[in-house]
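A quick aside before the break. I want you to see a complete sequence-to-structure record at least once, exactly as it would be stored in a machine-readable document. Don't worry about memorizing anything.
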Amino acid sequence: MRVLLVEDDAIILEGLKFALTQEGYQVVTASDMAQARTQICQGEPIDFYLLDLMLPDGDGCTLCSEIRQHSNAPVLFLTACDDEVSTVRALEQGADDYIAKPFRIRELLARMKAVRRRTGGTHTPQVQEAAQSDSAVIGDVRVDLRTGRLYCAEEEILLTAMEYRLLLIFLNHRGQTLTRRQILGCIWDEAGEFVNDNTLSVYIRRLRAKLHDTPQGQLIRTVRGIGYLME
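That is the input. The structure line, written in tokens, reads:
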């Protein structure tokens, strides 16, 4: 697996590169956004991104947003800012998870494996049920269940693995109000302890934005005091 590690601290960069290489990862590195963009545009395809939040010439959130324009590969943030604002911002830009510095290498490896399970692991029963048909259509939105691609007015919209799983949960329960606990229960099978109530709100907000949901035309409707409904 080819990993792009973007970190401006040279000691951390070399230490993580050595540790990840020892675990069998092929690691390419960058110490700022310019180098990272070069690796992304000119290098071989990247399978996993590890991004520092604060970089000398910008921030990881901007880089993550650029990555999400053409790739669904997992993104995990390395951040010294262990606060809700930084976490939510990273998730809203398309990150799959984050880990706060300082961290142990075993914790980072566990997080990476958890994210990999989300993006390439086995399907839950809900996913298997949805896959029995070739596609699902809701208004201008079409989901190709054979390829896992989403189209809005025939324009392809990139989804992260978690956003796609969340969409499948709603598709399999159309017309049924789902509580947040029920949704978390479905995601828990794939994401384990790294998905919680706070991040669920971010995932739903991101999915709604990609579905072009508006108050006048919502595909995923909030049922006040209960949960969510896809009609």
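Two observations worth writing down. Residues 105-120 form the longest helix (16 residues). The chain is about 45% helix and 25% strand. We'll return to this after the break.
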